[in-house]
Amino acid sequence: MRLNKLATTKRVEIMTEQHGMTGQKNASKELTKSSRLEIRCTPQEKAVWVHAAKGKKLAEWVTDALNEAADK
Fold it and tell me: Does residue 53 sit within a domain?
């Protein structure tokens, strides 16, 4: 019983020492994207878009396509 208490205490100490908001610092960007766009589509439409994205993330591909269309 005592060994388990010691191990649990040690684990808590290690966890608290390693934490330090590193994820937020690493994720910070010059321009944050805080606005969202949500659309509804059929599964077939989405499959076509995913295929057309050719390995890009779908959100990145859609953003590029919309920005290109807006520039015309």
Answer: yes
pLDDT tens for the 72 residues of the chain, in order: 555 665 555 555 555 565 666 666 666 778 888 999 999 999 999 999 999 999 999 999 999 999 999 998
Is 4 contained in some domain?
Answer: no
Structural domain boundaries, residue 50: 40-72
Tally of domains within the chain: 1
Q: Which residue has the tokens 């076509």?
A: 48
Best CA proximity match to 33, nearest among 63, 72, 54, 68: 63
